[in-house]
Design a protein that fits this description.
Chains A, B, C: Catalyzes the condensation of carbamoyl phosphate and aspartate to form carbamoyl aspartate and inorganic phosphate, the committed step in the de novo pyrimidine nucleotide biosynthesis pathway. The structure is a homotrimer of 303-residue chains. Chain A is of the alpha/beta class and 303 residues long. Chain A has two domains: 132 residues, Rossmann fold (3-Layer(aba) Sandwich); 156 residues, Aspartate/ornithine carbamoyltransferase (Rossmann fold). In chain A, the strands form two sheets. Chain A has a five-stranded parallel sheet, covered by helices on one side. In chain A, strand 6, helix 7 and strand 7 form a beta-alpha-beta unit. In chain A, helix 1 crosses helix 5. Chain A is globular. The two termini of chain A are 20 Å apart. Chains in contact: A-B, A-C, B-C. The interface between A and C is medium-sized, with 26 and 24 residues.
Chain lengths: 303, 303, 303
């Protein structure tokens, strides 16, 4: 199968990453390249996700493509007991490309095997969300001008947060990264990722406190600490106000440091940070459109 | 900020009204002016509203624009606890224009302050619904050829009906209007609007009965009397069949009189009125497409 | 009224069928004929139906048309108590064509009477689903090269299955068909259809067993046997595994025999059939796009 699916960030080589970055920059300069004229893209969201869906649908629209699909499984055949296999087989008869979000881990890979057209994973449960990683990378490259020698701080839920795992894997392909993990005990970076880093000889540091240690950071990647992740509610109460980024904490950070967040945020970044020029999460959302235009181009060999 | 938001009908001057009327007439002659080619409009309906949404989406489509968005908040990030601030900041990174419907009064003004692209209010709770007023005005101008010296009858729920309030404010900018208010005691026109009319020296009359007094009307603007507006259910029972327009009541009305209704109606206009040439509410809905094409053009300086 | 509505399969003559087949073949060769440029199609799904909706929306998109509408009645004005009459009157002010799915039998015919633009019935309850029949016919013609002298087996729920009823009516217009009905006692072909066939002198045979009798078939049309159709649950338990098509049953069938199914399937076709070249149901879904492009063209006189 030489279909260019994007299911996991590891489906792409370092060369693919760089090619996507180049194309994203090109789309940023001219977002309305109508390469999708005459094409139909199926946007299948088996669970709601406004941000990702609107970002993809904006990308498709700017490229002149047409969209069919659904924004939650309630209005899909799933409610009639149809299997994912049959839904995907059917939709791949209609569309030139499938963008899929599904609550089940592994569903995207399965869909890609069944589909006759390329599948782009827009998130499959706690598993993978590779287009988020590529827009994160594009945001890092735009602000830091390089992927090499970066000091990346990851904060919050590092145990269940799929975005930090994928970003870690992707950035490990580049020269000499340093990772700093800041998380409560229950939400630490899983052992498998630490083993991976050790094997590659990549330096990383773990912290429980979220204080002025971020002064060394090039990128501070914030994530949400969700109550339902804690087995003991008291544990959550103890840490819930610890992993909040406040404007006062940015005083001694590097001039070129930038704050990323996959959004939506709840309270983990105080709103007084929004005015700070180091706050980059809304521009990051904007970059998502260009990164997704690049990913779609790549999947369909449009450039 | 010189963004051309449309949040309240009072955001527009008399000159703006007339310009919108001119443009609407131009769009009615040729609805498919593809001025939105290459543009993406976010259609954010935090509560369902078929009529308004389909009317806007038809206008955008006829102008060659693309639409992203949602038709109720269930499939939006709101369910993940995202603030309106963040949703709007995000969406204004994607789209060239935001059309927003939201149940909360004041939400549209707030969205306009947060957004980097123009915001058009498609209804914010009981507060404002300015595009409805502009299509009402276009319908009046088309049928009466003038905004001056008109005798406007407003019938039904004049207390909570935002459409009659906005229409009253807008028409008061023109020469010598007369208003007649026909409403049950609990649903009378609020004092503040009557004070406004008195200060401007505009004549108005109040009636409890809905009989043949409409013989003087140029426009009869019907609205729904909803049960849930009454504190005492018995009050509703007493009046529920009083404010219903029937075909027999139209016999002695002016030849050029026209009946408007923002729709949806429940039973306040008997269906035998539909065949009468004075029934104008479905053409009024049609006018909504042209008025909204004009409003979008105005917001984005397309003409 | 010379609007070209499609409400029932009997609205079309034999000549219409053949014209649709010709046009469908033409669209299959070139699906992206942009005959709908500048046109807006209302896609009104008062109940969810992914397959039919996506198929129609793909057809409209490939033809360059724009879509407005809703995918379930929850986000429509229906929830505000608006009548179907008013909804259709309103929408026909906006759109050039209405595609409608509604749970109520007869609703499509009523909508066509009220609408000023053509209405295509995308299913009205248990009543009619004519576009499914036309895509079934196109699938039969593509695989058998003729509508004459065909031996059609219909299997499963022949009592409530609207697709088999409509297909029977349509194929009866052609030369010398033979029908074989395979169904449990409670779900047999209704008497009225058998009377119709007898009056036209068309041969048909009824079977309770689903075994190797399909060796004579040109087409095996499978349908779902639903538990809720049985008054006695024990009856369902007795037959539920009887009307399942398995790959082993295909050994002695004609080389050119093809299996159709309107989809979604639950378990009535074993998945091992999918690999068999006689399995045609996914291509059948694909044919639906071309058939619907033809139907839309016909409704709007585009060719």
């Amino acid at each position: 199968m030489n279909k260019k699916d994007l299911i996991s960030i590891m489906d792409y080589s370092k060369e693919d990453y760089l090619r996507i970055m180049d194309m994203a920059a090109d789309f940023e300069e001219n977002p309305n390249q109508t390469l999708l004229e005459g094409k139909v893209v199926a946007s299948l969201f088996f669970e709601p996700s406004t941000r990702t869906r609107l970002s993809f649908e904006t990308a498709i629209s700017r490229m002149g493509g047409r969209i069919v699909g659904f924004s939650d499984s309630g209005s899909s055949s799933v409610s009639k007991g149809e299997t994912l296999h049959d839904t995907i087989r059917m939709v791949s008869q209609y569309a030139d490309l499938i963008v899929m979000r599904h609550p089940l881990e592994g569903s995207a890979r399965y869909a890609a095997e069944v589909s006759s057209v390329p599948v782009i994973n827009a998130g499959d449960g706690a598993n993978q969300h590779p287009t988020q990683t590529l827009l994160d990378m594009y945001s890092i490259l735009k602000t830091q001008k390089t992927f090499d020698n970066l000091n990346i701080f990851m904060v919050g839920d590092l145990r269940y947060g799929r975005t930090v795992h994928s970003l870690l894997m992707a950035l490990s392909q580049f020269e000499n990264p340093i990772f700093n993990f800041i998380a409560p005990e229950e939400l630490q970076m899983p052992e498998e990722y630490k083993i991976y880093l050790r094997e590659k000889g990549i330096r990383f540091f773990e912290h429980r406190e979220f204080t002025d240690i971020i002064s060394e950071a090039d990128i501070v990647y914030m994530t949400r600490v969700q109550k339902e992740r804690f087995s003991d509610p008291m544990e959550y109460e103890k840490v819930k106000n610890v992993y909040i980024l406040k404007n006062s904490m940015l005083k001694h950070t590097k001039p070129n440091m930038r704050i990323l967040h996959p959004l939506p945020r709840v309270n983990e970044i105080a709103t007084d940070v929004d005015q700070n020029e180091k706050a980059y999460y809304f521009q990051q959302a904007r970059n998502g459109v260009f990164a997704r235009e690049a990913i779609i181009s790549h999947a369909l060999n449009l450039k």
